[in-house]
Amino acid sequence: MSQPYDRVFNFSAGPCTLPVSVLEEVRDDLLNWKGSGMSVMEMSHRGKHFEGIVAAAEARLRALMGIPNAYKVLFLQGGASLQNTMAPMNLLAGGSADYVVTGAWSKKSFEMGSLVGGAKCVWDGKANNYSSLPDLGSLEYSAGAAYVHFTTNETIHGVQFHGDPKLRATVVCDMSSDIVSRPVDVSRYAMIYAGAQKNMGPAGATVVIIHEDLLARTPEKFHPMLDYRLQAENGSLYNTPPCFSIYVCGLVYKWIQDLGGLSAIQAINERKAKAIYDAVDANSGFYQAHAQPEARSQMNVTFRLPSDELTDAFVKEAKALKLDGLKGHRSVGGIRASIYNAFPEEGCKVLAAFMKEFAAKNG
Ligand code: PMP
């Protein structure tokens, strides 16, 4: 079945596929947004049109995730990477934080945290190349840790925590690659951050959901752009925000709401991931999943083939079928199928059928 506008099935890890209906709406409003006489890219971030856009985006995200009133929602810049620096700068208050290292991204968080101040790694999955996850409830955390940091979904290794942590500690969480892909209990986290460019919209905006109690930890007379308190006081408009990205995120939130919200998108995401994992398991002599079964990601499916030559042939033949962006990250090798919210279910079925054929031919 051909895709609208002759598009490929885009398995990229982010930036990645956006919903076609959202792209169509953006196209239709591009030159003159809702009769304003200008595009969203051209309007003042201090004007009433953009104020409405940012307020709608925030309101929809709050509704989708059930974000309690005690949390601020910020749309910042600098990607999730800057949050790895901003979080310790604001929240350490001279103390030290614990880090759970489950893959490439939480390792970076730990390394960046170490540059700022006290940082302790309380678990590291390196020995088995980050294919399994610990039980967060039974790790030993430092008494008096400023916070515990973990990453819900490791985009490169394809491991994902299922369910919210039930910790007494202050939990800071990188949710970059699975935010709004399933329901979460926000009250289990003190702070959640995520770059927009996987499940929410185009690159540019970084969402920070932070409990207002944490804002008191920011040192006095702090760097304004790195100051959560100042950003919160200014409602994400301290300086010029990533206007276009915020606008599209708002449309994507609406798209998820119209589908039935996070439980509905979770059900679809589970079916999508299952189609591919089933193809891996049904041909387990040929494909080998990277993640342990209980740690498998619903967002990034990682698996290997028997050789690099076969992996290259797989990627090439897949591309000819418009299955694009499947080559795995060099640190894991093999194949990575990133299947975020907007990735069509049909594409997972096409990939699964191709995997079966490819294994039969080359196995
Ligand atoms: N954390 C995770 C889990 C990621 O997947 C990524 C990007 N792939 C990052 C952090 C870094 O995000 P950014 O490029 O927005 O800084």
Name a few traits of the molecule.
single chain, 363 residues, alpha/beta, seven-stranded mixed sheet, three-stranded antiparallel sheet, 9 helices, 14 strands, 35% helix, 16% strand, globular, binds 4'-deoxy-4'-aminopyridoxal-5'-phosphate
Task: Explain this structure.
The chain is an alpha/beta fold and 363 residues long. The chain has helices at residues 20-28, 48-65, 79-91, 104-116, 228-233, 243-259, 262-282, 308-320, 345-362; strands at residues 9-10, 71-76, 96-101, 118-124, 148-151, 153-154, 159-160, 171-174, 191-195, 206-211, 288-289, 300-304, 323-324, 335-338. 35% of the residues lie in helices and 16% in strands. Strand 3 (96-101), helix 4 (104-116) and strand 4 (118-124) form a beta-alpha-beta unit. The two termini are 27 Å apart. The structure holds 4'-deoxy-4'-aminopyridoxal-5'-phosphate. 4'-deoxy-4'-aminopyridoxal-5'-phosphate binds next to helix 3.
Task: Tell me the layout of helices and strands.
Blueprint (H helix, E strand, L loop, with lengths): L8 E2 L9 H9 L19 H18 L5 E6 L2 H13 L4 E6 L2 H13 L1 E7 L23 E4 L1 E2 L4 E2 L10 E4 L16 E5 L10 E6 L16 H6 L9 H17 L2 H21 L5 E2 L10 E5 L3 H13 L2 E2 L10 E4 L6 H18 L1
Parallel strand pairs: 1-13, 3-4, 3-5, 5-8, 8-9
Antiparallel strand pairs: 2-10, 6-7, 9-10, 11-12, 12-14
Helix pairs in contact: 1-6, 2-6, 3-4, 7-9
The structure holds 4'-deoxy-4'-aminopyridoxal-5'-phosphate.
4'-deoxy-4'-aminopyridoxal-5'-phosphate binds next to helix 3.
